[in-house]
Amino acid sequence: MLESVVSILTIAGFGFGIWKFIKLRLKSSKLKRFCQLVQDWFDFIDKSNIDEINDFELNNIENKISSYIKDHEIENYYMRFDEKFKRNFLKGFFYDKNNIDAEFNRCSRLPAEGIAIGIYWYLLIGEFTSFKSGYRNGNKGINFGDIEYRVKALKMYLGIKQE
What we know:
By secondary structure, the chain is mostly helical. It is 69% helix and 2% strand. The chain has one domain (28-157). The protein has helices at residues 2-47, 55-71, 83-90, 100-108, 117-136, 145-157, and strands spanning 78-79, 115-116. A two-stranded antiparallel ribbon has the order 1-2. The longest helix has 46 residues, at 2-47. The radius of gyration is 20 Å and the shape is flat. The relative contact order is 0.12.
């Protein structure tokens, strides 16, 4: 009797472990697909002349990514940035090694404690909208790096090789 209970619990534990592993792998592939969609969006705006960008096509791409986030339930996935990640991201920048969090905020344009994917995506859209508006109005204080470094941080976070 005791042996059968132990074997049932062992099988249940093994099944639970497999389920957790599969769930993790599915989440990872969903996040990498999201990153690819963001990269495609970024490439579209990077290769387009801002004055001649097709707003209708851009809006379709943004809606596709927003739908992907909601449909695949990754909106609330929280990217947490540990010290090692922050230091790796900051390689190549001149930064104050005593204040890693503030320097990470400054260089990546992301909060040092982390950010949810849904919020990340809407910040990215907002940053580009602000950039586009400033560019068309002749604002000298705009910076395309605000968008570029957020995309770079996402790719680095997910372990996707940088070009």
